[in-house]
Amino acid sequence: MKITRQKHAKKNMGFYKHNFQFREPFQVLVDGTFCHAALRNKIQIREQLPGYLGGATQLCTTRCILKELESLGKALYGAKLIAQSFQVRSCSHHKDPVSGSACLLSMVEEGNPHHFFVATQDQDLANKVKKKAGVPLLFIIQNTMVLDKPSPKSLAFVQTLQTSQLVPEHQKQSIVQLKEKEGLAKIEGEKRRKRKRAGGPNPLSCLKKKKKTQESQKPAEKKKRRRKRIRVKTEAVLSTQKNEKE
């Protein structure tokens, strides 16, 4: 199960890397529900998440999330301590704090320009995140962290880019790199080489040319033989004339 889970994570990470330009260190926005689930299931987020995502990570939170955890009291005291160890990303709610879910949604607005992951156990927040293209979603299930598969919104966004031929140059390069990794570029190169070989000279045409050369040589030989016969006749005539004179 661990191997298959790692394969799915690698596949999903490849999708976000090549279509939405996610790069290391991966920035993960973590809310209080995710911290509480990690504490309850004895998951070390800082130690385990980089290995699962296949690269360096930066665990982040916001002031709104920290204030929300403080307001919930002792029940989420452990989750608050975990969240306080993360980097704090500035949000637009300095004077008027909002709920943690509303704050996280505002951080991934306008196409998620900072390439944030969202780590949450809030199902309502997860459904809203899935409606935004290019926002990876992390959650905890059966004592393990799971990277959700790309949402239909993300898949549709990539498909429209490809069909409308509006793919940027850096995405075209990533597609070429993918082909090289999968070995598709080699197969295409072999097909092109085979086509060039098929367009070579026809061996039958070479044989016809040889026959023509042989036929052109035959009359030359006949001419030489005729010249020899004429010479023999002239020599015989001359000899007879000499004999008559004598």
UniProtKB/TrEMBL annotation:
Region entry Disordered, spans: 186-246
Subcellular location: Nucleus, Nucleolus
Record-linked Pfam families: Fcf1 (PF04900), UTP23_sensor (PF24779)
Compositional bias per record (Basic residues), positions renumbered to this chain: 221-231
GO biological process: endonucleolytic cleavage in 5'-ETS of tricistronic rRNA transcript (SSU-rRNA, 5.8S rRNA, LSU-rRNA)
Sorted UniProt keywords: Nucleus, Ribosome biogenesis, rRNA processing
Polar residues bias (residue ranges): 237-246
Function statement: Involved in rRNA-processing and ribosome biogenesis.
Name listed for the protein in its UniProt record: rRNA-processing protein UTP23 homolog
